[in-house]
């Protein structure tokens, strides 16, 4: 049985660690070549080096709030591997605070990285893919974009916006053979979530029927499915990977 992503090239933002790196690892295991983008150039280069040599993986410094940076990331992949078949818009930050305490800058930062970042990645990847009449764009939303979480008016708004953006984009480019889908992770064990206070972690755990947090590799498996021909008739969908939380 051949690998699911054999011969494909994927670009993944926010890939120096966490979910982004887990997606890159699983993609390489399925035969893909990957170009990782992250704000920290040294860290993302080191992450790429753990996946293989330059014939398999490369790391590029990229600030997703800049369209020029995202274009440069795509150009690096095209120069290295000939084309981009899969775009994973995963980069994200949190600046949690209640509305009363949240600054305008904290709101803007989260909207810029998540929502504008995904817009840049979707728009620019689609421009390349439409010429080739094929491609899969996968945008990382969050369960907090479905239900809203206290202390996250910025993050919940951005993650809900990603769903609307993805559906609109899917309608624009579907006839060109380009698919756009979303993944909504629930509580996934990463450096970002492990930093939360134990009381909050326990409260989230109590909402999960499967009674455990998810692993980054479990998001990566769904990304492989959406990137591959297994999902060839799916676009504009939102796949919840939450252990049953907030059904």
UniProtKB/TrEMBL annotation:
Record's keyword terms, sorted: Oxidoreductase
InterPro entries cross-referenced by the UniProt entry: KR_dom, NAD(P)-bd_dom_sf, Sc_DH/Rdtase_CS, SDR_fam
Gene from which the chain derives: fabG
Taxonomic source organism: Gordonia malaquae NBRC 108250
Coiled-coil features, chain-numbered ranges: none
Record's keyword annotation contains Oxidoreductase: yes
GO biological process, one term: fatty acid elongation
Domain Ketoreductase: 8-191
Family: Belongs to the short-chain dehydrogenases/reductases (SDR) family.
PANTHER family registered for this protein in UniProt: 3-OXOACYL-[ACYL-CARRIER-PROTEIN] REDUCTASE, CHLOROPLASTIC (PTHR42760:SF40), SHORT-CHAIN DEHYDROGENASES/REDUCTASES FAMILY MEMBER (PTHR42760)
GO molecular function: oxidoreductase activity, acting on the CH-OH group of donors, NAD or NADP as acceptor
NCBIfam families reported in the protein's UniProt record: PRK05653.1-3, PRK07231.1, PRK12826.1-2
SUPFAM superfamilies the record matches: NAD(P)-binding Rossmann-fold domains
Identification of the protein by name: 3-oxoacyl-[acyl-carrier-protein] reductase
SMART domains (alphabetical): PKS_KR
Record-linked PROSITE patterns: ADH_SHORT (PS00061)
């Amino acid at each position: 049985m051949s690998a699911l992503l054999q011969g494909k090239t994927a670009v993944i933002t926010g890939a120096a660690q966490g979910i982004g790196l887990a997606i890159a690892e699983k993609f390489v295991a399925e035969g893909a070549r990957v170009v990782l983008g992250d704000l920290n150039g040294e860290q993302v280069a080191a992450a790429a080096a753990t996946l293989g040599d330059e014939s398999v993986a490369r790391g590029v410094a990229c600030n997703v709030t800049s369209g020029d940076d995202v274009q440069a990331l795509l150009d690096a992949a095209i120069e290295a591997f000939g084309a981009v078949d899969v775009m994973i818009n995963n980069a994200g930050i949190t600046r949690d605070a209640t509305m009363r305490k949240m600054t305008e800058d904290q709101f803007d930062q989260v909207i810029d990285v998540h929502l504008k970042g995904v817009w840049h990645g979707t728009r620019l990847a689609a421009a390349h893919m439409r010429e080739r009449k094929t491609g899969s764009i996968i945008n990382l939303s969050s369960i907090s974009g479905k239900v809203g979480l206290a202390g996250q008016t910025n993050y919940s708004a951005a993650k809900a916006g990603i769903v609307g953006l993805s559906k609109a984009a899917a309608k624009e480019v579907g006839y060109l053979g380009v698919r756009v889908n979303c993944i909504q992770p629930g509580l996934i064990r990463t450096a970002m979530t492990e930093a939360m206070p134990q009381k909050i972690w326990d409260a989230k755990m109590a909402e999960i029927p499967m009674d455990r947090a998810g692993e980054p590799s479990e998001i990566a498996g769904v990304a492989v499915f959406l990137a591959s021909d297994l999902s060839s008739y799916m676009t504009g969908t939102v796949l919840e990977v939450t252990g049953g939380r907030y059904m």
